[in-house]
Amino acid sequence: MKTLKPVHSFLKAWQPRLLLADWHIRVVDSRAEASSSTIAHITFELSEKEAILYCYPMLFGENRIDRTRTLLHELVHLVVTELEVKLLADAMEERLCDRFAKILQELGG
What is the DSSP letter of 37? Predict the structure, then answer.
C-alpha cells in the first residue's frame, strides 16, 4: 500500500505558491472507503484556516498528472473561498458606508 508521502510533498510545494502557507491542512487516508468517482475532497474551517484533505483510492493510481490536477483543484477551493469572503466583505463595507453617509446626511439636513 502506498503512503501519503506524495500528498504531503505536494502540499509542501504548493501551499506557499498558492499563498496558503498559513493554513493547517491535515491529510486523511480514505482508501478504505471505496468511492467510485471521488478522487479527493477537502473540507475546511475558514476562520481557523484549517482543512482536511480526504484522499480516496483513485488518487493513488499511476496517472501523476491527474493527481496533481486533482490536488490543485482541492486547494483552489481554499483560495476561492478566501477571495469570496474578502470580496463580500469589501462590498458589504461599501454598502454600510453608503448607508451611514445617507443617514448622517439626512440627520445633518
Answer: S
Q: What is the pLDDT of residue 63?
A: 67
Contact 44, 78 (CB under 8 A): yes
Those residues of the chain that have pLDDT short of 70 are 1-2, 34-36, 63-65, 109
Residue 103, in any domain of the structure: no
**Phi and psi (nearest 5°) for 27?**
-105, 130
Residue 8, pLDDT score? 95
Residue 60 lies in a domain: yes
Query: For 33, which DSSP code?
Result: S
Query: Of 68, 38, 65, 69, which is closest to residue 54 (Cα–Cα)?
Result: 38
DSSP tag of 106: H
